[in-house]
Specification:
The complex is a heterodimer. By secondary structure, chain A is α/β, with parallel strands linked by helices. Chain A has ten helices and eight strands. In chain A, the strands form two sheets. Chain A has a five-stranded mixed beta sheet. In chain A, helix 2 crosses helix 3 and helix 4 crosses helix 5. The radius of gyration of chain B is 25 Å and the shape is globular. Classes of the chains: A alpha/beta, B alpha/beta.
């Protein structure tokens, strides 16, 4: 089995796919693995793929042309999932799609296990994005900046930043992905940018919230209590709709 | 009354908790005015949100509007749930009453005139500030504003209108707004409010006019239906207008909804479903909500429900409601005069299926979309996936499972390439037994050990 090892970024994975085609690998005997997450197996023949923006762009252009923009977007959703097999699933989906000339219907080929896996990953990423779109909580710092912290399974930070840029154009805000140590920063009238390799801020416990923040968080906590109907109490349902893992960063559960 | 004591106790506790939770160090830092403002609004918020909690519609869906690049807010077609309260209901909007003062004396309502409860009101400015600050922190998706009837329906509607006008213009809020149209208010007032709201709703309160007359003596059926009709016509006119003039202001773009209280009056499920169906067909409603009756007052007109809040009944009505809206069922298919209430043990779709065995089994690889939708265990999503996926290859049971079909229920009603998953009999009693028992395996013989307790029937 030939194993092409690529970087974890979307660019890195697209470069790896380019390399697999460039080397004319037999897809049935080729696997894409991610750096750091690769576990060597017997008879594996490893090839390290270099990340090359030019190659990545070429792959993306091909996907756009062959499968359409929407399907390409779905593939890139699958590529930001937290699962180790994401690169391989996307690679084989592309292989089948091109070989059978499925075009726009590439992701409708649900009987194929790789396509199914891609859709699963895409769904997981989408779901977590949809969850966090609602469950993310901003807290106002002393400086007036809104700060949100989260620990998502998947890399949904960029999706969230785009959502909140549209929603809060006049605000300065930061979303911090504590799982990956990446923060997205939005400043009024400026492009979003990302900062990598940040240690966990909470450890030093240095975050200082504004006076107003304390008031409004109290009010919201009170609101969440008074809006519940005690005759209908159903905490199982609450847990099903709002999983516990989100609650540690949510104002009303602090 | 005992009930009221409990209720006011609740409110007091709400106030107390909040005082305790504020760390003293921080309280010291706040100015005197801030403190006063804080307690004042906290009290109002807990009273007026507790008073609004029986309104069901907390959806933020139905309209997609991206941000304008300057002021705060956008809306998403699917709506966003921001939190869930301890009763498992979603918190999507800041759901409050403008005031809980009310001139009406509806028997079932906590805010009725004859109840001795704490009365208070928000000013429009207070509502706007709360909405903006909550929205900024991503607590909520927008505002849900309802109100008790202060002085007169017209006056109340004007106050509501003033509030959301302020929110849209002075504060530039571009998020979701749901307001109640007050029955009895002049239609012109309702119409003007509609240009600032995303969704409007008029509560039907009870399925039939008799129920309304008995339990809400100050409300009249025609005062409820008139604004409903007006909003419906307004939406239709507005759609035509927007086609002609792209920048015409939109009128209630997310449509209108309504709600009925279930279990306080004697209607059967069949009556309720027929009314819901008519509301969808004749009034183009987006949603009809069903609210299980919670006894907050004691009154001789109100029933005593020994089983507590009729949550299962409410659940069955919602299931049937979805069958009406997305599955192409008609109310008279699900229920009829001889069979007027839903089965407590089977959901309405499975119940329909076991009574119509002539339609089954359905062949997955050939049946049309409508027949697939009628199979228990196959929903809208999985039916669509099946239709797409079978174009590129035949489907077996393994694939179905991966497509999201609930085989536990579906296996009795489908074939893949002419085969059933297990040898099962299409026979009513056998199916009912297997669908209600919580187990996955089919007992092939389908003979049951007789039990002594069977005789008690």
């Amino acid at each position: 089995m030939i194993v092409i090892i690529c970087k974890k970024t979307i660019e890195g994975i697209y470069s790896g796919i380019y390399q697999a085609y460039e080397m004319k690998c037999d897809p049935a005997d080729t696997r894409l693995a991610l750096e750091e997450e690769y576990e060597p197996e017997l008879f594996d023949e490893c090839i390290e793929a270099s990340t090359d923006p030019e190659k990545a762009v070429k792959v993306k252009r091909t996907l756009n042309r062959e499968f359409g923009r929407e399907n390409t977007r779905y593939l890139s959703y699958a590529l930001v999932a937290g699962a180790a097999d994401r690169a391989d699933a996307v690679y084989h989906t592309i292989v089948v799609g091109l070989k059978r000339r499925l075009g726009f219907r590439v992701l409708e080929n649900l009987a194929d296990p790789y396509v199914m896996r891609v859709l699963e990953l895409k769904r997981a990423v989408e779901n977590e994005f949809l969850h966090l779109r609602g469950f993310l909580r901003f807290r106002e710092l002393e400086s007036g900046i809104l700060y949100a912290r989260m620990r998502p399974h998947h890399y949904v930070l960029e999706l969230l930043m785009n959502h909140f840029e549209d929603r809060l154009p006049g605000e300065d805000f930061i979303i911090y992905d504590a799982e990956r140590g990446i923060a997205g920063v939005h400043q009024k009238d400026m492009e979003i940018y990302y900062v990598n390799h940040i240690g966990d801020q909470e450890k030093g416990n240095t975050t200082v919230y504004s006076d107003e923040e304390l008031i409004y968080s109290e009010w919201f906590r009170g609101f969440c209590k008074s809006i519940a109907i005690k005759e209908r109490k159903n905490t199982d349902l609450q847990r099903q709709m709002l999983p516990l893992r989100f609650r540690s960063d949510m104002t009303e559960f602090l | 009354m005992l009930q009221e004591d409990v209720e006011s106790c609740l409110l007091d506790q709400g106030g107390l908790c909040i005082e305790e939770n504020v760390p003293n160090a921080h309280a010291g830092e706040l100015s005197e005015i801030q403190k006063n403002m804080k307690m004042d609004i906290m009290d109002k918020l807990s009273i007026l949100s507790a008073a609004a909690k029986y309104d069901v519609a907390c959806t933020s869906s139905g309209v997609e509007r991206s941000g304008n690049g300057k002021t705060m807010g956008n809306t998403v077609a699917g709506g966003i749930c921001h939190s869930f309260s301890s009763d498992g209901r979603c918190i999507s909007l800041l759901k409050i009453l403008l005031t809980n003062e009310c001139i009406y004396d509806c028997k079932y309502c906590i805010n009725r005139r004859s109840n001795d409860i704490k009365r208070t009101s928000f000013t429009p400015e207070e509502v706007c500030r709360l909405t903006m600050e909550f929205y900024r922190r991503n607590y909520i998706e927008g505002l849900f504003l309802s109100s008790g009837i202060l002085c007169s329906p017209d006056h109340t509607m004007e106050l509501i209108g003033e509030t959301i006008y302020l929110l849209r213009t002075k504060y530039g809020f571009n998020g979701y707004i749901h307001v109640k149209a007050i029955p009895g208010a002049s239609l012109e007032l309702v119409r003007r409010v509609g240009f600032y709201a995303d969704r409007m709703s008029v509560n039907l309160e009870f399925p039939t006019a008799e129920g309304l007359k008995k339990l809400a003596p100050n409300k009249h059926r025609k005062n409820i239906l008139a604004p409903m009709r007006m909003i419906q016509n307004g939406i239709q006119d507005n759609k035509a207008e927007i086609v002609q003039y792209r920048n015409a202001p939109s009128f209630v773009p997310a449509g209108q909804s309504t709600q009925m209280i279930i279990g306080a009056t004697q209607e059967t499920d069949y009556q309720i479903m027929t009314i819901a169906e008519n509301l969808y067909r004749k009034f183009d409603l987006k949603r009809v909500f069903y609210s299980a009756f919670v006894a907050v007052n004691q009154d001789k007109e109100l029933p005593v429900l020994p089983g507590g809040v009729p949550l299962l009944r409410e659940h069955r009505l919602y299931q049937a409601d979805f069958l009406l809206r997305f599955y192409g069922y008609r109310a008279e298919e699900l229920l009829d005069e001889r069979h007027p209430n839903f089965n407590a043990f089977l959901d309405p779709k499975a119940d329909w299926a076991v009574r119509h065995l002539e339609c089954f089994p359905v062949e997955i690889n050939r049946a049309d979309y409508q027949s697939l939708l009628r199979v228990p265990g196959i929903g809208v999503k999985s039916a669509k996936r099946i239709v797409k996926a079978r174009r590129l290859g035949t489907l077996g049971f393994d694939e179905l499972k991966r497509l999201g079909v609930v085989l536990k229920r579906a296996l009795y009603f489908i074939t893949c390439n002419g085969r059933m998953m297990y040898p099962v009999r299409l026979e009513e009693n056998y199916l009912i037994r297997n669908l209600t028992e919580k187990k996955n395996v089919v007992d092939e013989v389908s003979v049951r050990q007789m039990s002594l307790f069977d005789m008690q029937v």
